[in-house]
Amino acid sequence: MSNAFATIRWEDDADGHLVVLDQTRLPGETVYLECRTVEDVWQAIKRLSVRGAPAIGVAAAYGVCVGVNEGRDVNEVCDYLATSRPTAVNLFWALERMRRVAEGSPTTGTVLPARPQPPILEVLLAEARAIDAEDRESCRAMARFGADLLDDLPVGAGILTHCNAGALVSGSGGGTALGVIFELARRGKRPRVFVDETRPLLQGARLTMWELMQRGVEAMLICDSVAAQVMREGRVQAVVTGADRIAANGDTANKIGTYGVAIVARAHQIPFYVAAPATTFDLSISSGADIPIEQRAAEEITHGFGKPTAPAGAAVYNPAFDVTPAELIAAIITDRGVVRPVNADTIRATVAL
Ligand code: MRU
Which ligand 1 atom is the nearest neighbour of the CA of 51? Predict the structure, then answer.
């Protein structure tokens, strides 16, 4: 089933601009933001109008085209976009790819090409489109591998998820963790999804519920603090989440609260799965201790969606992500196959192609 909305799209040819679905306005309003400057793209990523690891990478790739359209230098644009959010490694991966393709382009290279080459804007746009298309394909592959892995679950099994890892986290694909759930639904497994609301920005309540309801998948919204209770009640047979960065040993950064869910799942002997493309792995870092964790504004807690929700001047700690240790993860579903058990060797064998 294709998406009823476009998360990210490029408008017109090489001299066009980027359009993103403003996820901060969902589910109430479907508003598209036109990004005509690199600053627009940076802001869209920073304020979570476009969010979720793969989507951030795709948006940043198109963002480089926006910057070059403005007449800015590719490296300068990449450096700037890289400061938007620190945790999802897909951002840095995509920017690196854009840098490399620019370096190979006749406009910036030192060696004269033998044949006339397309202008750099066209080269960059082609690369951004390739990243977008590869992401769509990788969602399909993850959905297949994941649904095969979870094939033993009984019809109507309960699956808990945290944050949003659906079509909204992909340029034009079906998503990571939710992609697996959509595929299970397509195969007639009738999953019942427990959706953590995901404080403080409610990606679960606002976005995951919206996606599941649009697709007619049975879903129940719960406060984050209810996850342990539904597990104890025996209503959850598996947990599946996405990831923002996975270290070489399998330690996985994902939305704040994921670590707690993984511990509670282990306490109830419920398998905890992560779904993430190869582009979310960072094999340059050996463990999760090296994953940079984004700290976000206190107002997200003290003024939930604009309304005062804490006394004025309250001290706040607001990390956007936490790290789930590899030993709590039963398997990682990637676009290149399933990593199980999760350790440095199995990861290298699966994703370091
Ligand atoms: O802060 P967000 O909304 O960008 O966080 C997103 C998540 O944590 C997702 O679970 C993650 O990106 C996985 S989706 C591929």
Answer: 4
- The H or E element that residue 339 is part of is strand 337-339
331: which strand partners? 273
**Which tokens hold the place of 255?**
């939305």
Q: How far is CA 309 from the centre of its chain?
A: 28
Query: What one-character-per-residue DSSP string does 4-65 give?
Result: SS-SEEEESSTT-EEEEE-GGGTTT---EEEE-SHHHHHHHHHTTSS-SHHHHHHHHHHHHH
State the closest ligand 1 atom to the C-alpha of 242, by its place in the atom list counted from 1: 13
Write the Ramachandran bin of 239: left for phi over 0, alpha for psi from -120 to 50, otherwise beta: beta
Q: Which residues are annotated as catalytic? A: 244
The rounded Å distance from CA 69 to ligand 1 centre is 29
Q: Which residues are within 8 A (CB) of 225 and not within 5 positions of it... i.e. 6 or more apart?
A: none
Q: Is the pLDDT of residue 1 over 60?
A: no
Task: Compute the distance from residue 244 Cα to the ligand 1 centre, in Å.
Answer: 6
CB 254 within 8 A of CB 281: no
* Predicted model pTM: 0.95
Give the lowest-confidence range in 96-100, 111-115, 222-226, 331-335.
111-115
3-class DSSP state for residue 72? Answer: coil
